[in-house]
Amino acid sequence: MEIADPEEYEVSHVHRVYEHIASHFSATRFKPWPIVEKFLRDLPIGAVGLDVGCGNGKYWMVNPDIFIVGSDRSPSLIGIAHSRGIQDSIVADALDLPHPDSCFDFAISIAVIHHFSSSERRCHALKSILATLKAPNNSSDGGKALIYVWALEQKNSRRGWDEGDRQDVFVPWVMSKQFSTSAKGKESQQNRQKLAYMRYYHLYRKGELEADIARAGGRVLESGYEKDNWWAVCGPVR
Amino acid sequence: MKILTTNFLTCALRACKSHPNSFPLRFRDAELQQDSSPFNAAFISNILPRIDWSALLTTAAELGFTNLPVEKPAVVDEKVGMELHRILIETHVVEGKLVCGNCGHQYAIHQGTANFLLPGHLGISPTPFVWRTGVADIYA
Which of A188, A195, B58, B106 could pair covalently with A175 via S-S, beta carbons 3.0-4.6 A apart? Predict the structure, then answer.
């Protein structure tokens, strides 16, 4: 799919959506995914890293011996992270991360890259994450990033997509009434219909995440499929 | 935002990153808050090698902390460890600005959150894309 202005497209179909659904979305996001949890627990004490697209900051509590600077494009989600006591999260765009290059032990970006609406921007996001990681040298492997994206191949999920289906889709977020900020609006007085906010996703097919990482100048250390998602651990090349 | 965090921040503009003046970002009108949190000696001594000491000295001096040693300590004894814990972990900037020394761009800190969105990132129209429909319920 070709989108004329991907940046403007994401403003409408990703950023504003998350701003509106933030509190409802956050209320459904509390359980860390096992592979992410293991990745964070295995890090050495004092490791410093990034959570790019951290949302409400659900990965903060996993390992108290590491230091994570989280960022998200949605000020509302960062506000929620702060109200949960997570003080080290900032509002930033993954394509313009405000971090020094080659400085971090690790990064995670969980369910974020699939919201970029062109192949170039997805690569750019990976490149910008890889740039923050320590470069490998003779004495160390360098920094590592764990990336998760939604898979096209998920025929047993309730979405039911599979190989050969369209990869660029809208996925509705049906707002539960208790979280609806427009409850006082005149439309909702007329009829109390549920609001479905349409989020844009690029669904990754098998092998595509690894190819994007290579194109972004990274090397894949490990990769796999877990619960409707493709994941990869990657790092900068020497 | 912890002082420790500022040691890992720079200008969001790619062009500034290679310029030494962009790091550390400089504080303007900073309002500080102290809290207390448990001292983790192992964390402090392990984080120390990852800290850019001269950037930390600049930031600390700007915020009124002037008793850090000029050279990064090789070993963290309890006195230095506690002092680092107080500055890095227990001191928060709640309001103010972070300014790039290269391009001069100011990033606002409000209620403890720094905002690094550049002007080009700011949206144009206030309405999100919404469908009022029962059809979407099939996905819910």
Answer: A195
In this structure, which topology does domain A6-236 adopt according to CATH?
Answer: Rossmann fold (3.40.50)
Angle at alpha carbon of residue A202, lines to A201 and A208, rounded to 5°: 150
CB-based contact, A17 to chain B, within 8 Å: yes
Q: For A163-219, write each residue's pLDDT tens digit.
A: 988 999 888 877 766 665 554 444 444 445 567 788 889 999 999 999 999 999 999
Chain A residues 179-218 within an 8 A CB cutoff of chain B: 187, 193-198
Q: What is the structure's pLDDT at B134?
A: 36
CATH topology of domain B3-139: N-terminal domain of TfIIb (2.20.25)
Q: How many cross-chain Cβ pairs, A to B, lie less than 8 Å apart?
A: 147
- Structure-model confidence comparison of residues A176 and A50, the more confident one: A50
- Please report, for chain B, the start and end positions of each structural domain, with discontinuous segments joined by +: 3-139
- Tell me the ipTM for this assembly: 0.87
Domain parsing of chain A, residue ranges: 6-236
Total-model pTM? 0.88
CA distance A163 to A159: 13
pLDDT of A197 reads 81
Give SS3 for A79: helix
AA letter at B33: Q
Closest CA to A15 of A151, A84, A122, A112: A112
